[in-house]
Amino acid sequence: MNNIVLPLPDGIAPPTWWEKLFPEWMIVGVQNIGTFVNEHILWFLLLGIIILLIKFWYDAERKKFFQIKKLWTFTLFFLSKRLMMIPLIITFARRGGELSNKKVEQLLSLRNECRSVSLRKDPQERLQREQKISHELFQFFQELEEKGQLENNPRLSRCAQDLEFIDKKLVELQLAYNHEAKRWNINRNVAKKLLGLPSLKPFES
């Protein structure tokens, strides 16, 4: 049997496709929401601007935070490189007879002590032990230079130059990191805490 479409009264439009598809309460709810947004459009625009400003501020602070963390990472790199050079120094020095067994044991012992202390958890203790290694290596190469033995061992001489460069970089990185970390901690506010940007622990060179 064919569907019979009755004519609508004057002034009443036929139902749209969404009025046929969705229930009336849902259509009324969407219309009410649209009306509310139109009436308060300026407040929604203001809220959007505030959210964008917060996002830009957070991105800038997060970038600054990771730039400071890079200084810490470079410090770890140079400290690790100096520790890794100790076995190489021992090998080259033993070939030329410049290093006694007692000195070897002392350097390896200091190296193991450094590796047992985390720079992240206890930077002060770790740096104190690193300074002992730096002092012992400095004295060792100074004695070789005074005796004229360093010139006869080019590989060991190269190690001395590398260690001098590493020590210089470590001093620069520690000073730069301390400066930036202290500035970060002073300017750290409630917003940074809520957004998960932690404080930074400085260390002294």
Characterize the largest beta sheet: strand count, sense, and whether it forms a barrel.
Answer: none
- Give the radius of gyration: 35 Å
Mean pLDDT across residues? 80
Oligomer description: single chain
| Model regions low in confidence, pLDDT < 50 over at least 5 residues | none
Secondary structural class: mainly alpha
Shape: rod-shaped
Helix content: over 70%
- Give the count of helical stretches: 7
Output the helix-strand order: HHHHHHH
Q: What separation lies between the terminal Cα atoms?
A: 95 Å
Strand content: under 5%
Please provide the count of β strands: 0
Explain this structure:
- The chain has 205 residues and is an all-alpha fold.
- The chain has 7 helices and no strands.
- The chain has helices spanning 17-21, 24-39, 41-96, 101-115, 123-147, 154-186, 190-194.
- The model has no long low-confidence stretch (mean pLDDT 80).
Short key terms for the protein model shown above:
single chain; 205 residues; mainly alpha; 7 helices; 76% helix; rod-shaped
Outline the secondary-structure elements.
Layout: H1 17-21, H2 24-39, H3 41-96, H4 101-115, H5 123-147, H6 154-186, H7 190-194
Helix pairs in contact: 3-4, 3-6, 4-5
